[in-house]
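Q: What would this chain look like folded?
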Amino acid sequence: MSVFAQFLVNGIVAGSVYALIALGFALIFTASRVFHFAHGAVYTLAAFAGYTALVSFNLGTVAAFAAAIITAVALGTLINATLYEPMRALGVSSFVMMICSFGLLIIITHLTAIVWGTNPVVLWRGGQETVYELGTVRITGRQLGIVGLAALLGLALWTFFKHFRLGIAIRALGNDSELALINGMPARKLRHISFAVGSALVGVSALLIGFNVGIIDFNMGFDVILMATVAMIIGGLGNVSAAAGGGFILGVIQNVALWKIDSKWQMALSFAILILVLLFRPSGFFGEKQSAVGL
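A: My prediction, written as structure tokens:
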């Protein structure tokens, strides 16, 4: 059982970051109704921007996070402004935008490989750090920091959507975009803000996962966007907070499963969970049929 407990702790750490990724992905979907698969490319490029600041220029951790966030926000909002908004103005369907987004994911991923190479790079080599022990279970100060930062960001975003006018307006846009337009809400501006916030979250997440596992590579965005999609659906499609819960559950299950199965089966396990949820609870773990969007 001590081995199981260790995997559970590792799952909580991973699940905390997965929750942030799913939160950003669901926020963008809620505001735009587009499966923003290029979110995975934003994640990858943010990770390498942080790597460049931290390793190539030796600017420190704070600068690395700043580089990752700025890169993510710039790329995410640029994609929305130059791809989704023009397509929306032309009446292009969400399905076509999704296909274009997936194509953009592939293009940016390969451009990243051209710039930084196809081999994984070391973001963090480890070293001396505080280790806390509870019986046979070990957790490092770095892992506690990851969980704490993820929880703090999640709480801040929940407060923003519950108690701030701008957050409430974005929720209203997700609930009924036509009604929001009738009431004079600046839908385009709200979508830009949603892309900026969602991209910032994935930028932070990219470095948190990089620090947790130690390495990053140009292909990392594909697994992340698949995980975010699964998390959003099993949590409750269109419900931002539910997506975060789905991401946390998925991270815990994936890591606990390592107690008995090889890591190469993690993604297959995730989709098996997705199929079961769709069969037995189509609204997701936390979704409600009567609400299109919730927080």
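The chain has eleven helices and four strands.
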